[in-house]
Amino acid sequence: MLIIHIALERHHHGDGIMKLRDQGMSKEEVLSTLEQYKAQDMDWKSGRAFAYVYDAGREADAVAKGAMTMFLSENALDPTVFPSLLRIENELVSMMLEHLGGSDEGVGNFTSGGTESIMLAVKTARDRFRKLHPEIERPQIVLPETAHAAFQKSAHYLDLDVVLVPVDTTSFRAIPELTAEAINDKTCLIVGSAPSYAHGVVDPIRELGQIALQHDVLLHVDGCVGGFILPYFKRLGANVPDFDFSVPGVTSISVDLHKYAFAPKGASLVLYRNKSLRKHQIYACASWSGYTIVNNAVQSSKSGGPMAAAWATMAYHGDAGYMTLARRMYDATRQALEGIAGMPDLQIMGTPHMNLIAFTSDTVNVFHIVDEMKERGWILQAQLRSPCSPTNIHLSINPHTLEHMPAMLEALEESIEAARTLPSGNLAPMIQDAFANLDPSQVGDDMLNQMLAMAGIQGVGLPGRMAEINEVLDALPSAFRETLLIHFVNELFIQRG
Ligand SMILES: *Cc1c(COP(=O)(O)O)cnc(C)c1O
């Protein structure tokens, strides 16, 4: 619940409107002021955070920062003016195609993140489809329910229909037959994850590839979180299903360098099996009064910093460095799975293929567990229930989580005991009675504020604990959750000083 964590910071700000200073600050004053702004942020260097940050240590950080600064002002808008950036991008793509079973025909581009990579892959599928079937106005994409929200966001932005297909409720993997059944003459793209963020499991990509070939649709593999590290887990002996370009039918893969390749944020790649697919990704405009525009990606002017920092990070670790990091995450994951399996109140969900774990509880409110862990300095991520999956807790494991794992498991046991004693479950029936049958698009701001108040969020005074707001969200149908979240964020980003 990323949004809810931001909410915690709200009451630390003063009132009133910020305006541009008349006179500038000194360099020291600027930097120390921003340092103060950071004081309430999550302490991600502590090794106690199991979400949001991917950390490979302080020296790796320094290398990335150096490269980021070196290319901060260079503009990747025009590769003919900054050939260094063209070279860096092509080298990153080349390394990753080699890593993910691509052939000499493979191509790709650097993007700002997984969402942009996915959006480009969806646009590519849409535009290829429109060329082949100009009579169909609104193509559709077929997604397992576990596919990242970025696909639904892309469909929203690109005006496509989404068909969500259920996944297996024990393994949380896509069911290829259901994807096949959902394909019709409007389908431009099917999707599999390697792995899904929520449960860390890889979909049956080989079977999905066969379906894609049979129906002449594209298949995107979302390797945003795992595409980079899964090959290392495989080398360490993990039972990783095939997912890359060596699988027939896979036409594109997204892989975030800012996740488990440990590059600073703003770094992802979208890769294609060949150039004729990628052509649908590129946008050009020569019918305005300014410089000619031709963009691979969504951004136009963009800093060279993130791609240089990604290149630097990968050069610094090398294959051997990543193997060491992967081994630590592999060992930490095994310890976590063993520890959690030994706690009778908790159940691990599915069989994770990577260092991403989800677990649930039949006996204790998991939102209270997350709050209790936070009180003890550990950041875990609550995941709301969905049609395929009960309310649960997610862990993204980092290399230096390894030395903290025994302490984490101890804190988890304490938190379960503490959570057991807390009131729970009163809010959900109340919320369902009052709101669940309303049409969220007809609900006004007053009622939305009332709902936030029931969840303990009122004006600037926000609770330190998130169980109530999470319970409210969990009790609501997804369309209502979305309405409430949009309202909440619209209130959060306001003028202040
Ligand atoms: C993180 C993630 C994304 C989205 O990436 P962003 O970099 O946050 O835009 C997409 N798919 C999966 C599986 C992810 O874990």
How would you describe what is shown here?
There is one protein chain. This protein has 497 residues and is α/β, with parallel strands linked by helices. Helices cover 42% and strands 12% of the residues. It is built from 17 helices and 13 strands. The protein has helices at residues 2-7, 27-37, 58-70, 83-99, 114-132, 149-158, 176-182, 205-215, 230-235, 275-278, 305-341, 366-375, 405-420, 427-435, 445-454, 467-475, 478-492; strands at 107-111, 140-144, 161-165, 187-193, 218-222, 252-256, 268-272, 283-285, 293-295, 346-348, 356-361, 381-383, 392-396. The strands form 3 sheets. The chain has a 7-stranded mixed sheet with strand order 1-7-6-5-4-2-3, with helices on both faces. A 4-stranded antiparallel sheet has the order 10-11-13-12, with helices on one face. The two termini are 26 Å apart. 44% of the residues are buried. Bound molecules: pyridoxal-5'-phosphate. Pyridoxal-5'-phosphate (PLP) binds next to helix 5.
SSE diagram, text form:
Layout: H1 2-7, H2 27-37, H3 58-70, H4 83-99, E1 107-111, H5 114-132, E2 140-144, H6 149-158, E3 161-165, H7 176-182, E4 187-193, H8 205-215, E5 218-222, H9 230-235, E6 252-256, E7 268-272, H10 275-278, E8 283-285, E9 293-295, H11 305-341, E10 346-348, E11 356-361, H12 366-375, E12 381-383, E13 392-396, H13 405-420, H14 427-435, H15 445-454, H16 467-475, H17 478-492
Parallel strand pairs: 2-3, 2-4, 4-5, 5-6
Antiparallel strand pairs: 1-7, 6-7, 8-9, 10-11, 11-13, 12-13
Helix pairs in contact: 3-11, 4-11, 5-6, 12-13, 12-16, 14-16, 15-17
Pyridoxal-5'-phosphate (PLP) binds at residues 113-115, 118, 148, 150, 193, 197, 222, 224-225, 256, 268.
